[in-house]
Design a protein that fits this description.
By secondary structure, the protein is an all-alpha fold. It is 80% helix and 0% strand.
Length: 234
């Protein structure tokens, strides 16, 4: 099936990359503004950095296992730079975890402030590199996928990736993804969740999202979900 230049293709990177960008920037802000004299606050911020590290490592694994392996099957494997980026990102993730350990072990005062600053700077560099990397995937890898796969095949690929993610991780991903999306994207994602998840699970998703959407965003989401429900095929 041919697509005109105006046709919007399925983009398996769009949503997850919005989630990662939002999580990265929020975590960077938290590290930069942390009060190292407040033990509880420092502990929470360190936990957020480790959570981001886990999310990034998991995302790399999913891309390697599902997307890169598919491109290799087509004889059009990921460009060398992107594959190398993945290897380097795993090293950088380990370095972030080590810096968190150093920060937690540092004595209060100047040593702890210096450790927090070191973590902040390294995290900023990691995020900057990831932003460039994600742009490359969204442009170059999408072109490869669109040349080889139909939209139905891309939806199936995305479905296999989601099925491989543990429910708790999926919920955490939605927590970052949905607020970072445009209203129409939010409604599309959540209509899909509602179509495939038990009512209790969908209610849990909405409960997780509610604190992260303002009144206007929440109202638009409910409006769009109601419209999607009534317009769904019988």
């Amino acid at each position: 099936m041919k697509h005109s230049p105006e046709t919007r293709r399925v983009d398996i990177y769009a949503g997850i990359h919005k989630a990662l960008r939002a999580m990265m920037m929020d975590t960077l802000h938290a590290v930069g503004s942390v009060d190292v004299e407040d033990a509880a606050e420092l502990h929470a911020v360190c936990g957020r950095v480790l959570g981001l590290a886990d999310a990034c490592a998991s995302h790399l694994g999913h891309e390697n296992d599902f997307v890169h392996s598919l491109l290799e099957e087509y004889g059009n494997g990921p460009c060398w730079e992107v594959a190398q980026d993945h290897r380097e990102h795993l090293v950088a993730i380990a370095e972030l975890r080590a810096l968190v350990t150093t920060l937690r072990a540092a004595c209060r005062g100047a040593a702890q402030a210096a450790a927090a600053q070191a973590l902040y700077r390294q995290l900023a560099l990691f995020i900057a590199d990831n932003f460039v990397h994600m742009h490359t995937e969204e442009v170059e890898h999408n072109q490869m996928l669109w040349a080889r796969c139909s939209d139905d095949e891309l939806r199936a690929l995305e479905g296999r990736i989601v099925a491989a993610i543990a429910p708790a991780e999926h919920l955490e991903t939605l927590r970052w993804m949905v607020p970072a999306m445009a209203p129409a994207e939010r409604a599309q994602v959540l209509a899909g969740v509602r179509a495939h998840a038990p009512a209790s699970a969908f209610a849990a998703v909405l409960g997780t999202l509610r604190p992260h959407l303002d009144e206007k965003g929440w109202a638009k989401l409910n409006r769009d979900l109601e419209a999607a429900f009534y317009n769904a095929p019988a």
